Every structure is written in structure tokens, then in C-alpha cells.
Amino acid sequence: MHIHKRFAPPQEVVHLLAQTYTFDPYAKNDPTRVLLSCILSARTKDEITYPTADRLFSFYPTPLSLCQAHLTDLENILKPVGFYRQKAKYVRDAACYIEKWGVPKTTKQLTQVPGIGPKCAAIVRAFGWGIPDIAVDAHVQRISKRLGWTEEKDDHLRTQTKLKTLLPIHEWVYVNHLLVSLGRHVCRPQRPLCHQCVLNSLCPYPSNP
Ligand code: SF4
């Protein structure tokens, strides 16, 4: 008898993905660098973001030095990343904020830092401060729906809340990375490669037979 799948068991999903994708967070336990590198990462591949962040921090190792930098110098360093002009402004303004107030720990305060939205706020909490949190981006949104964990109408905040109820707290910090890794190469926005996916025996998505 064919049993129709409606919901992929979250812990089995995390377990399978953790066996498939490795993870080494950038600048772990350094909230300033996690925050600034997250600004650089928007719409930019990790292979470009992190070497560029390394270069930035080699020229400007402290928030004060970055806060006092000339915008054109920052733009030259940040050229490899997408939207580098906007990011140069954000990075400098964020550095000035950090110089004055430090890196916040709450989502509410973090989202007041220039260039920081809810996703980067969760990443700073998780990897900068070691506070369990789940970063939700487009990959996490899409795949959570395909796995039957969330509904079509759920926004990022609702998705985050649901994932926090589905997963044990010690797995929260890894979920973003695992789903992003899956989403980049296999569970793509268009035509997901279900036949190559480690989750294909669990996933209820209609294109997965
Ligand atoms: S690739 Fe297919 S089987 Fe894998 S999670 Fe995405 S929709 Fe499900």
C-alpha cells in the first residue's frame, strides 16, 4: 500500500543532512566579525564573502579603525562582493554603532544596527554569542515548506517560530546552514533534483515521487 507522506520528520532530516554537509562557521565566537561578515554575505557566495572579509579585517582590525575609514577605500576592498557600495556604507555605519554601543545580543537591538536584518541577527546570536537561534532565509523558507514543516502563507517570523517548536534547541544553530547547503545544489528553487537528494525517502514534496 502506498502511504502518502505529508511531513518529513525533522530530526531525521537534520541527522541525514548533518551526515552530508560539513559546517565551519566563519569567525565563530567573534560577534563583531560575525556581524560585519554577515553584511557582506548578502547575495554573495561564501567563497567570495569570507576572503573579502579577511582582507577587510586585515586593513581594519577594530571597529574604531573601520568606523574612521574612507568610504572609497572600503569600496575598493569590497569590490568582489555584490552591492559593494551599499555594503561599504553599512559596514562602516555598523562599525561605528559597535564602537559606541558594542554588539547587541537581542534580536530587537541587533536589527537596529545598520545593515542587519532578522537573518543576520540570528546568525550573530548563534555564532557570535552562542545563543541558540534559527536564521531564516529564502532557502530555509522554501525547503521548510517542501518538507511539510510550514505552510505556503507563513512568513519568515512564523517559519522561525515553527522550526523552533519542531527542533531541539541544540540543533537550532545548524539548521540554516544545512538547509542552505541543500538548497544551493539540490533543493533548488526551480526543478529540485529530488532523485539526488538524501531526503527523498522522507520528503512529501509533489515533485518527489
Ligand atoms: S530536493 Fe526534492 S526530495 Fe529533496 S528536499 Fe527538495 S523537494 Fe524534497
Question: Notable features of this structure?
Answer:
single chain; 209 residues; mainly alpha; Endonuclease Iii, domain 2; 11 helices; binds iron/sulfur cluster; metal ion binding; EC 4.2.99.18
Strand portion: under 5%
- At CATH level 3, the topology of the largest domain is Endonuclease III, domain 1
* Annotated CATH architecture of the largest domain: Orthogonal Bundle
From N to C, what is the helix and strand string?
HHHHHHHHHHH
Helix amount: 55-70%
The profile of the biggest β sheet is: none
- What is the number of beta strands? 0
Helix/strand class: mainly alpha
Keywords: DNA damage, DNA repair, Endonuclease, Glycosidase, Hydrolase, Iron, Iron-sulfur, Lyase, Metal-binding, Nuclease
Pfam families: HhH-GPD (PF00730)
Organism: Coprothermobacter proteolyticus (strain ATCC 35245 / DSM 5265 / OCM 4 / BT)
GO molecular function, one term: metal ion binding
Q: What this model shows, in words?
A:
- Belongs to the Nth/MutY family.
- Keywords: DNA damage, DNA repair, Endonuclease, Glycosidase, Hydrolase, Iron, Iron-sulfur, Lyase, Metal-binding, Nuclease.
- InterPro entries: DNA_glycosylase (IPR011257), Endonuclease3_FeS-loop_motif (IPR003651), Endouclease-III_FeS-bd_BS (IPR004035), HhH-GPD_domain (IPR003265), HhH_base_excis_C (IPR023170).
- This is Endonuclease III.
- The chain is mainly alpha-helical.
- It folds into 2 domains: 10-23 and 134-196, Helix-hairpin-Helix base-excision DNA repair enzymes (C-terminal) (Endonuclease Iii, domain 2); 31-129, Endonuclease III, domain 1 (Orthogonal Bundle).
- It is built from 11 helices and no strands.
- The two termini are 15 Å apart.
- The mean pLDDT is 94.
- The structure holds iron/sulfur cluster.
- The site of iron/sulfur cluster has 13 residues, from helix 9.
- Residues 143, 146, 186-187, 192-194, 197, 199-200, 203, 205, 208 line the site of iron/sulfur cluster.
